[in-house]
Amino acid sequence: MKRTTMILTAALLVAPAAFAARVDRRQENQQDRIAQGINSGALAAGEAAKLEKQEAKFQHEKRDMREDNGGKLTPKEKVKLNNQQNRLSREIYRKKHN
Length: 98
Prior knowledge:
Blueprint: H1 2-12, H2 16-40, H3 45-68, H4 75-96
Helix pairs in contact: 2-3, 2-4, 3-4
């Protein structure tokens, strides 16, 4: 249990600006992966639309979290957003490879 706690703590030590840049970069990469799946035919239109909707929901939630805290994210919110991005990334992979 301590090992998990230590890993989460280390992940939270990232500078706020660096975390925001990383989140934005991951979102761009995921958008590129969706576009690539559409272009290659690996993603059907419905699958891509669902992924885009999930991405928009993520953006909206991130914006709401920042508005609630004066433009900043709490450490718990950072972990939550990272986990959501991980789930979305896995979903993109699954849909492209089904």
